[in-house]
UniProtKB/TrEMBL annotation:
Protein name: DUF3159 domain-containing protein
Keywords: Membrane, Transmembrane, Transmembrane helix
Keyword Transmembrane helix found: yes
Species of the source: Streptomyces armeniacus
InterPro entries, alphabetized: UCP010219
DNA damage recorded as keyword: no
């Protein structure tokens, strides 16, 4: 069993009083720092800050929201003004491309910009092929419905999707499955929250897709882009902030490697300080 998912002596929801910093100043399994005054991730402020930083990284923060929302807003704005599907589609695609180029110039991560460009491109293709402006939003709707089902099913079977996504961000990988049951419960709750929120959004949009005109449907779609996402992120933050802190398996593996190196060095050095000579 690897250090990614190996069981400890006892499963527990919270930290043990016996856990402490490594004697050489390395973080312990729960991410606490050494005895030189560094902050403790077990404290409320440390745990909350760690959760906020991880969620910000995973979901892209303000810039990620802009890159996935503004192109759709530009599309429906232009289409509302001149009813020209081609102009609206090209404008949204160009804007999405410029946001991706801005990421390249700043040497930032491209995952959120790429997802935005890809989503806009697929939407443009759908709308161009059918000639229906509502189809610009159809791929995103189908993706949201599939994601909702994935969150709900994964949570029901005990492999919450949110834990699989955020585990590497928190450097805990899959340790929450067997070594941190309280954290697993938090991931299950958060995955259910994402699933039901996205499912509720789909329950609103799909009927409107059939009944509403393209302009009204587009504005409703844009209006429902950010609020459900913010609600899901906020609930995730609440669940994880109240959960036990993540077990830093990366720090564990590094500590094990250093311990092995020290053991090898100690074995190759004689106790009297004299060098060992190999006999022929």
């Amino acid at each position: 069993m690897t250090s990614l998912d190996k069981p400890t002596g006892t499963d527990r929801d919270g930290p043990s009083d016996q856990d402490g910093p490594d004697a050489n100043g390395l973080p312990d399994a729960h991410g606490r720092s050494d005895a030189n005054g560094a902050s403790d991730a077990h404290g409320p402020s440390g745990s909350h800050a760690l959760t906020e930083a991880a969620l910000f990284e995973a979901f892209g923060g303000v810039r990620g929201l802009v890159e996935t929302t503004v192109p759709g807003l530009v599309f429906i704005l232009i289409f509302t003004i001149n009813k020209d599907l081609h102009v609206a589609a090209v404008a949204a695609l160009v804007l999405s491309g410029l946001l991706g180029v801005a990421r390249l110039v700043r040497r930032d991560t491209l995952k959120h910009a790429f997802s935005g460009v890809f989503g806009v491109l697929v939407g443009v293709v759908f709308a161009m092929v059918t000639g229906n402006a509502k189809d610009f939003y159809l791929p995103g709707m189908l993706y949201g419905l599939g994601l909702a089902l994935a969150y709900l099913v994964s949570a029901a079977v005990g492999y919450p999707l949110l834990g699989l996504l955020l585990g590497p961000v928190f450097k805990e990988n899959l340790s929450w499955r067997t070594r941190n049951p309280g954290r697993k419960r938090a991931y299950v709750k958060a995955s259910y929250a994402w699933g039901f929120i996205f499912l509720g959004k789909s329950a609103i949009l799909f009927p409107l897709y059939w009944w509403a005109d393209p302009t009204r449907f587009g504005w409703v779609t844009v209006a429902l882009k950010i609020p459900p996402l913010l609600l899901a992120v906020y609930l995730t933050w609440i669940f994880l902030a109240k959960a036990p802190p993540p077990i830093n398996v990366i720090a564990e593996m590094e500590a094990e490697e250093e311990a092995e190196e020290r053991a090898k060095a100690a074995a190759s050095t004689p106790t009297d300080g004299a060098p060992r000579h190999r006999r022929d």
